[in-house]
Amino acid sequence: MPDLSHGDDVAAVNALRSAIMRIGRRLKHQRVDESLSPTEMSVLGTLARCGSATPGELARKEHVQPPSMTRIVALLEAKGLVRLEPHPEDRRQKVVSQTETAEAMLEESRRKRNAWLAQLAEGLDEEEWEKLRAAAPVLEKLAHLQ
How many Å from the N-terminal Cα to the C-terminal Cα in the chain? Predict the structure, then answer.
């Protein structure tokens, strides 16, 4: 566990935050569909990763208020990227699913971003690349902790 009273840990946390933010900003420019907001892309990514969900479940996963998610889902539905279907157990609710169009767009987006990252990683030597491979699962875990 990082000790934020220890100078080395403070420096490591600061460097990690800075690097993640810089890479994240640069990755945002590798989008396939510029008409979608980062939040809309994130919702589609959540649906791809977790499967169909109610708007309330999506709001919790995306850390937004339910009325905001309702608007986001409506925009995505209007663009043909999600469909709403009746909830199998509670007819008052809807279930949001991504469409085949969204799946194809997300796949193309992943391909483009992966290619960009792979090209960037060409600047690493073998030892650095090995460290990055080892760090990837830790960074993935960190991304999903709350």
Answer: 15
Neighbouring CB atoms inside 10 A of 58's CB total 23
Predicted TM-score of the model (pTM): 0.74
Look up residue 24 and give its amino acid: G
Using CA atoms, how far apart are residues 103 and 32, in angstroms rounded to an integer?
Answer: 12
The answer to whether residue 112 scores a pLDDT higher than 70 is yes
Chain centroid to Cα 82, Å, comes to 17
Which tokens belong to 143?
A: 């991304």
**Residue 49, burial from CB neighbour count under 10 angstroms (0-12, 13-18, 19+):** exposed
Contact of 81 with 45, CB cutoff 8 Å: no
> At 117, which helix (H) or strand (E)?
helix 100-121
